[in-house]
Amino acid sequence: MEQRPDTGANRNGKRPRWGMAIDLKRCIGCHSCTIACKGENGTPPGIFWMRVLEQEEGKFPVARKVFLPIRCNHCVNPPCVPVCPTGASHQREKDNLVMMDQNKCIGCRACVVACPYQVRFLAEDTHGYYGETLTPYEAKSYQKWQPRTVQKCNFCVERIENGLQPACVQTCPTRALVYGDLNDPQSELCKLVRERSHFQPRAELGTDPSLYYLT
Amino acid sequence: MVNSFTVELRGQQEWAWLVAIDLFFGGLGGGLFLLFHNLKLSPAIGLLSLGLVTVGGLVLLAELGHPMRAWRAMAKPRTSWISRGMISVFLFIVLGFFYIAPSVSFFSWLPWNPAGFGERAIGTIAAICALLVTLYPGFVLSASPAIPFWNSPLLPVLFFAQSLLGASAVVILFSPFPGLLSLAAVLIVTNLILIAIHLWTLEHSGLAAKEAVRLLQRGSLGWIFNVGVVLIGMVFPLVVTLWMPSAVVLAGAFILIGGLLLRYCVLKAGVYVPFALV
What we know:
Order of helices and strands of chain A: EHEEEEHEHEHHEHEE
CATH architecture of chain B: Up-down Bundle
Number of domains of chain A: 1
CATH topology of chain A: Alpha-Beta Plaits
Distance between the termini of chain A: 20 Å
Number of helices of chain B: 9
Number of helices of chain A: 6
Largest sheet of chain A: 4 strands, mixed
Shape of chain B: globular
Helix content of chain B: 55-70%
Largest interface: A-B, 49 and 42 residues
Distance between the termini of chain B: 27 Å
Radius of gyration of chain B: 20 Å
Number of domains of chain B: 1
Structural class of chain A: alpha+beta
Largest sheet of chain B: none
Order of helices and strands of chain B: HHHHHHHHH
CATH superfamily of chain B: Formate dehydrogenase/DMSO reductase domain
CATH class of chain B: Mainly Alpha
Strand order of the largest sheet of chain A: 8-1-10-9
Number of strands of chain A: 10
Helix content of chain A: 10-25%
Number of strands of chain B: 0
CATH class of chain A: Alpha Beta
CATH architecture of chain A: 2-Layer Sandwich
Oligomer: heterodimer
């Protein structure tokens, strides 16, 4: 995996467009990415910035489970941004990441219902997994977000700006998740997208998600 | 909210009764002002319209996660219909008051002339704002591309028609005038046609659209929609306006109940298009 410590221009002189490919042939539905995301971002109970959907297909004796990890796709045309009345939901020009400014969020949830991927969440309160009394870890990680505002995947921006992989990518035991710069044709991500059959989730909506499922 | 880990048809969980009440009062107030302005009704009706929109706004504040930051919602009128709606509500209340106040004896000390050009201009701008107040909820909902029940250009029209219908019900209750019952009957039929077109279109669309229609007709919203919205809120009032004018007050009250329930049904029928697994 190519790691880029800065978010300035890439080797082609273009601004990076951080994206991800998820190899559905490699995903085994182990939920490691779900847990790694929770561990990294300390999201409250019931909220999963990254999660794995599963569905049974076929009938006995050829029934099987299929898995689909989902997360914010950091779309090029995100429906969640224009609907926000305050500008809290915004898209960074420098790398296309769709972010939340929780100091501006009024908790109207317009972005939650506008997101076609159902990956935006409003934390109603600051309860932890063990009730009102937070564990030391929860007390620390809950400082990253405000109750009654919308939160979402931030592509582990602090990690990638320090040359690390997003937590979900780093933890995936089957290397089903690959992240990189979609504006760099020589990145591993772009090579995979070029070489493998793929689809973008709900591409028909014109959101141009920065996520490719490899099939 | 608790995330789902399975692929399923799932309705939105974010907006429910409080938003429905806000949409109801806001629409009612906006529609009432339009009737007041265009039909030259009593100033008390005008003041009532301002009060209704104000109540709607206060209910919306209660729904927000951070009501004290509500002023920020006016920041993005270029892209956000919520922003446009908030600005319209604010301008409507201020300009509407300036327009109506001189006609009310309590405010007769105010130093402007109710019949002057300036007042008429203010009234026209207030009416445009009232029109936006009735329309914007439909545009807010239709900006959700993955909720087919909402993502329709018909929705703002339906909200507008509902606003006028509710407003006519308020006038029936407080300040009836000749021809009002005919107007109400036309509005009821218009609303019935719009709802029928919307449901028919969705019934012949994709999976989530069909599920929304099923919820309304035979699912968990069936009683509220069939009995509350259609029967009580429209069919009974239509019968009354056409053939039983003695029960017109009851019809007015029922139209209002149906209007509130319709807003709730529209919100709860917001079913997402599910993910497709390959």
